[in-house]
Amino acid sequence: MKTYFEILMQDVMRQWIRKILISMARALLLLLSLSTGAFASMILSEEGILPTRSAEYVRTQSRNASTEADAVNYNPAGLSFLQAGGIYLMINSVNLYTRKGDSIRMWGAQGNDAFSRLISPLPSTYQSNNKYLSSIATAAPTNLSFIFKRENWAVFADVSVLRGQPGVTYTQGASSLERLLVAYNTLLASRFSQELVSVYSTSSMKRQEFHIGATVGGSYAFIDQLAGSLSVRYINVKANTRITQNPYYVQATGGSTLNQYQVPMNIDTDVSGNGMGLILGIDYKPLDNLNLSSRLEYYPPMVLNKKTNKFIANPVLAQSGQLNEFCDGIWPLVMNDRLNAGGVGNIFNMALMDPRTVRNIGNKVKATYPISLSLGLSWRIIPALKVDTSADLTFPRARDLDGRERNWNAVGFRLGQSIEWSVATWASLSAGYSYNDFGLRKDKLTEYDDLLSSHTVGAGCSLRPWDFLAVSVGGSYSIFNRVRQSRSDVLESVLMGSPFVYAHGWSQTLSRDEWSVSVGVTFSFYPVAEAMRKKAEEHYWKGMSQFLSNDIDSAVEEFRSARRYNLYYKDVGKKVKELEELQKVIKKNIQQEKEEKLEKTNKGKGVPGDEND
Fold it and tell me: What is the pTM of this model?
């Protein structure tokens, strides 16, 4: 009787200690959910709008003070200062190749029986060092623009790829999901009083993501030195994430296997929707060779629709909440649980789910772009040499991402500097450098949100073989700063009827390289008949000849004639305005000289002045 009583008390104490430990772990989990940001998104990238939309940017890395056709993307107010009026058509193709690397080393503690002997854990035997590689190669038009400029104003329309991941493939899957698989099998081995030896699986993760922006707006020069712009942007987002994971052999100590408890994962989720943005710009030219600019972009909350096309996963991992982001409601979780794959289902319980992940269930996703402020300076030191400086500031925390905004710093930034040398009137060479920090906190970097800070160098040339055609060619290479971090997390779920909270840790190294080659073509023409254009050109050059001969009156008349034949020809309107001002100054000076001469003549003859009248 005494022996039975002692056994009963030991069992009660064991169960009591187990409940206390689980309660403490859940309290710690709740504290983590209140003190840290939400998980990074696995179905959308959140870096905002990328600047690599034109060949001019790729070759210079600094275009915020542009007054050429690509100002439609970087300095819309500068379109009022285009050298010539008329119609501009611009198309760019920026071709990227990105290689991502993700190596991970996992560790943890494992008891002989995770449910009855938590007090005396043993070191696990599943420590590993695996590398997950992925690559992206894109070759497609990234920008198509239409601009119409006349005198001191311009209107424009643009369609651009603001951001995209066309077919990025993680051929070995996502390390975060592989880590969950190892944690699950560690607990499973403990349940049978064994230790995990190895896990073999085939995995894949594919992401398709496009953010297309359509922008319309206009710019107006209030005076010769100052212009402003206003534009509206429509954004369309389409994304798809597909994940497969097939654990085909799991070995524990003693030669036993756990294959019968493995469940293949097959997830397919779409995200789509629309958003809007407002863009304000100012361009100021205090000197003919100096240009200053600023641009402010504001984006109201953008809420996208989420649709789960397929959801098959291990019920234990689904119950943990780690896969909630792929679910457009509770129904995919319920159906997956009732399938009872591997005999580990029929455990779905929202009350036992990780509270940090519950909010991820739903058919809506917030994907708001950050507010940004861009500044630029362009200075032509001598006629053949120009330098450009750009700065872009983003405010990623000043947006609503359902808590994910707390994963970011208050400010992200990009700095760029370029130098351009005009080797001929129709050709120029350039080189540029930029440094970029998206602002994502280092402890929130993941293999699918690897927004590492980077150094980029670019170079290229711009050619204008004819007045109506400009061609830009550029290339760049980005060196991303490798990041190594150690992290820990808890996995909370139910296994074979028993709730558990399991702590595990890992170290992760993220790396990335990126190359780009770009080509941009701009066509410009005037909506004027050929004969009229020829007459305008004749009068224009006659006017230039008269101007060089100091015959201002004749030069003005010739430029006016050129403007009547072709209003858009070069800067003829500006020439007329400047010479008309010069005429006024000359006439004023002549009149003043006549008055002074008359006054001297009157004094010499002794004619009394007005003061004696």
Answer: 0.81
